[in-house]
Design a protein that fits this description.
Chain lengths: 278, 209
Amino acid sequence: MTSMTSDPHLNTGVLALDAMPDDEATEAIAHIEDCESCAAELAGFLETAALLASVASEVPPAALRRAVLAAIAVTPQLPPIVGLHERHARQGPRHAQPDDEATVPTPTPSPTVPDTPPTSGTVVPLRRPWYRRPAAFIAAAVAAVVIGGGVVVAVNRTSNPPDQQVALEQCVQQAGDAQVLKPADAQGEVRYAPSCGAALVDVSGLRDLPADRTYQLWVLAGSNARSVTLLNQAADGQPQVWAAPTQAGDTAIGITEEPATGSPKPTSDPIWAVALPA
Amino acid sequence: MPPPESPAPRPQGHRRRTLTPVPESADQPASPEELLGLTALGQEHAFEKLYDAFAARVFGLARRIVRDPSQAEEVAQEVFLEIWRRASRFDPAKGSATSWIMTLTHARAVDRVRSAQSATDRETKVAQASVERDIDTVVEAVESGLERRAVQRCLGTLTELQRESITLAYYSGYTYREVAELLTAPLPTIKTRLRDGLIRLRDCLGVGA
């Protein structure tokens, strides 16, 4: 059956989606290991598949957090495998069962720092922060472009004097080329007017943060994130609007949660972002 | 619950349209890879952050696949315990932490479904959960909002057949043979559809090397 189905090169998609029946998996993986281009494709597919999970996101009951934290408090950790590369992530999901899963591990009974660094000593670039991902990624994040009126948020990478803010805001409000951009599943919107070199950002609807945290507004130009301002919550609960200067080549506007004093660069994934049309 | 890190007072006097200069203090982002690395060193605080970053995705994906919320919770707990135990085995050379975690989640959820299927049809269990629904406000529901929107949009670029096949395989946890059966399509066709769909998604999402 399996032999008539094919070109083994085609198995990458099935493997990445964890959809290969066990009885075919061994053969399929063996092929991948001998096929460099297949392995590369599979690696990219696995990263892609991992992103698919975001669509299914659902906040779990708080009890789960308590249960997990209670459990790890009494669970020893496995030591690193010295000099051995595990194949877990790269090979198909179910086929890389932990070699040691069945046994209760005895080493490192307390969670102290082991002598051996985790896994191999290979220096590998960490995954890029969100704001350094390809522009297409951020652009893809804008699911809906809605034309209409609305509140404004302005973004500004430096401290513009209030009168400049007002001028920018008025310009954008009256601009013929102003577009209203909304995130797909969040409140707020951006009114962007390239002719004014500015965007107004309305971020009403953000939840309150503890006193040691704040929202920070960024304008992105490709891989570069410029801080516009910290977004402090209006005491009166009115819609909050900021004006941010923009320039040609800017690709997106985003908001992250940061320590109360702000950060030079985003330190977390955006809680809110819209791509700017080119 | 980790203690607040720097209980600096909120700057005073900022209201609408006031701009605050941002100091050049460096507060390095903690990527999932870094958190996993710290978790491997036994740092429960880092693990908690990892939990908060991934709980919604892990639980959500498990729920999509096993459907029963209480079983999804069990799967999620298994997954996080395994992350804790196996953190030292994560090798960033072989893929991102997100991929590692979600791959593990998918595998555990599918394991659960397939073992349960021998006894009973999973559809019958859907409505039976009696789960405490005190939503965890600590977990960052919006944490992956950017990705979610990107994925939704990119799924929209697939052909109907590609999307259907990927949805059945990934979100419902069917094998490709089962997908072929459900869609009355030849096996090679399904393989090709899954692969072509992933190529399109990968390119749309800008997933690089």
